[in-house]
Amino acid sequence: MKNLSKVFTPTGVELSKDLSHYISYFLGSYHGGRNESFIYGLVQEPVYDYDLPGAYPTAMSLLEFPK
Amino acid sequence: MGMYGKYLFKSYTALKVEFSFPESVQYPVLPVRLDESSIFYPLNGISYCTGHEILLAISLNCRIKVLGGVFIPFKNSGYSKLGTVRKLGRHTTDKLLKETGEGQLEVKNLPDPLFSKLETKYSRTYFLKRDATLETVTANTIPKKSEVSNRKPGSQFFKTTRKLVEERLKYPKGSYMNQLYKFISNAGIGQMARGLNQKKVFDTETCKTKVIPPGELISPLYAGWITSYIRCTLSEILNNQNSDKKIFSCTTDGFISNEKGLEQRIPLESELFAYSYYKARESLTGTGELLERKHFDAKGLISWRTRGQLGLSGGIKAMTGYQQSESMEELIPKIISFFNSPSKSLPFIQTSLRSAKDIYLGGGHTTLKLNER
Prior knowledge:
- The structure holds two protein chains of two kinds.
- Chain A is an alpha+beta fold.
- Chain A is built from three helices and three strands.
- Chain B is built from ten helices and 17 strands.
- In chain B, strand 10 and strand 11 form a beta hairpin.
- The radius of gyration of chain B is 24 Å and the shape is globular.
- At the A-B interface, helix 1, helix 2, strand 1, strand 2 and strand 3 of A face strand 1, strand 3, strand 4, strand 5 and helix 3 of B.
């Protein structure tokens, strides 16, 4: 778990009383992309490389402000 | 429990959970951190994850026990069924009681087995009850597709993203302007996450290594939501791959498979994230789409590590820093031979530009540097 105080201070953003409790959950659950290799070695057949088009911007378009 | 599903999707939810997937699940979806830079996806363990990942895990019949967490619904999500209750996580409750005094916490009995809302003079935050469990959650928890694909029309996030996508699509794929608008979109998202990982860089002003300061747009809520949504969309597709086909690797927003024609794939009836993604693309570009084919290799590939794949005809290249100096005819036997070598290593010389720290301390200019790898 990361220490939020290192992230936000001394840049002037203060933690409210409750923020210090719940922000660590958000920092803990923040991970990057899923990167894995499921096989190692030689594959001798046609292979196809697929992408989700515009992945992160598409995800951003679904955001809303928090309540 | 069905009422919670769409709110786990349309919320900023961060949880610590204990979980166990059935052994038949080929691609478990709950991330477990090994160290600062590595996460993996085991069949069971303890995970810090998001509401998305909980939804997807439930759809894969995962048994989950919530150990703690926070739930902040989207504004205008319609989540208004909760009042305030006092049974919060022990740590939080104790601390707040000290600060506010017990009498100041309003207590109501609410038919809510999962979430509690804390409303004090400081904030309005929903907490999961400490001992809440999702073990008994059934498929009813999964929201309907319409509940996750509808969007408030005036969303600033949507309007901004659509503007950037529209501008990008005015220019041919791969052109400078097309790439520039792609960069602007991704840079905005990068700014939401800048500083969260506390990476260190050399600061030429102070001649010291310092933690990257947060960006002005920093938000663990937004950054976490975006990355977990993409992980879940990808993981859902992986778990629904045809059983007679294989997936060789995945990298953030894509994967390599031996299945042909997936660029034509549409979301399956059961796929919540794929459907949501498909509809989001439709809203942004006018055309529903899920996958695009980036590369193809007719002969096959060699895979030696995460992000280390080389197509036998050169159609796929993820070289983990290896800088190719030989022809494909020479390179492929070389990589195959390293599988059989005792050291399992392939030494090579890598060229890079001198770092800012190196130039600052040693003088000189931005020149090439040779590194043994």
